[in-house]
Amino acid sequence: MSDIDIRKVLQEELNNIAPEVDMASVDPAADLREVIDIDSMDFLNFISAVHHRLGIDIPEIDYPKLVTLDGAIAYIGAKLGSSTT
Amino acid sequence: MVEFRMPSLGSDMEAGTLVEWLVKPGDLVKRGDIVAVIETQKGAIEIETFQPGQIEQILVNPHSKVPVGTPLALIRAEREAKPGAPGAAPPPTAPTPPAAPVPPSPARAPVAPPSPRVLGAAVRARVSPAARRLAEERGIDLSMVTGSGPAGAITYADVERRLGEAVAPPERKRPLWLDLDAMRTAIAAAMERSKREIPHYYLEHQVDVTACEQWLTQKNAMLPPDNRVLIGALAIKAAALAARRFPAFNGFYRDNKFEPAQAVHIGVAIAIRGGGLAAPALHDADQLSLDELMSQMRDLVQRTRAGRIRSSEISDPTLTVSSLGTRGVEALYGIIYPPQVAIIGFGKTVARPWVIDGAIGPRSVITVTLSADHRVSDGHAGALFLAEIGKLLQEPSKL
Questions:
Q1: If residue B26 lies in a helix (H) or strand (E), which one and from where to where?
Q2: Which domain CATH number covers A39?
Q3: Do B208 and B321 share a domain, yes or no?
Q4: Which helix (H) or strand (E) holds B196?
Q5: B232-244 tens-digit pLDDT
Q6: B128 and B221: one domain?
């Protein structure tokens, strides 16, 4: 799965939580919780959705790595890469 | 035969619009089943029946606006259902004259149907060369373009229009039945009444929640995301347990007197995107295990944000809890939602230097506040109540 595909999945899942946000305009280095105004319940739902959709385990201790779009893409890319090798 | 009536979901509600029936004549219903959806100032509410039995007849059609108390359907009661049993629908009073139906509110604008598309795969659309070139240059999928030329041919202008749509901000998607303006009006009415009628007093207490955080970290490490518990669930459980021990903060003030509630139904304040707020009930929060509480809270938040609250969740809260979670500020002072008599606020968790056993160390701290009704309780009792919540949070495994 390419970074572009991962980005698409993440943007879709974030849009399910925040439908009014134009994800294309979100700074990929900004804290998602601030820029799209999601609370801890939203963030947990986002993690759940990514877990189900991509089949990767995201322990709570890794949450800080997923608070930006770029960070989440890198994290998931690494997880997917290591699981297929 | 029992009449299933338009319920009153607050003293300010005079009428409701029946949006949808979820049952039809002949269906069997049990207590707590959702039978209809109505629209009120508070948004769309799923209405439950408290009368088990069989739906005999539907009396009001969808899209009709009728006054509170109007019979909506007839339910043939089960033989064993005792009239007047707790939870049974109130016995029919004087026969209600056939309601003069309020003129139906203008039909909600339907969600725009997808515009007809020329399907590239199925029907090869005619595309003008200029249009094809423009589409290729700008990465427009021609199957997404509606042709307006002869025989549905796609013209340059059609592609240009599609280009405009593609860059235009996406249409604001709004959950089906949430009307934020109506919600704002309802919040305004309730809060005005609260500030007019309820003499609030306010207390605050800083609680070390390091034990909660450590306990949750350990618990959640072994769980998939679906089963993880948030600190907000611990806060609600602690508040509910404390409320059971301090009944003066759990109940309703009506007709110039306080009626303590038997059960603890915590109203969970839920922010709605775009600016709205609802505080539906998490039923019997004091009786639920933390896992049950978390899963019900998740469901409640999701349904509330999607505009699917149930009638009992609107009318039942006995005490409200408002929690800022991980973001925002350190303290919030709530306004009591009448006819309740208290609201508890949990600020965000912050790291603070703290004195433990004579030494200073870093701890996670939450400021917990209480706004309570001085007609019912005093600051002394409020302080004990708030301190009890703090104590309960020191032993999360016992919550």
A1: none
A2: 1.10.1200.10
A3: yes
A4: helix B180-197
A5: 999 999 999 999 9
A6: no
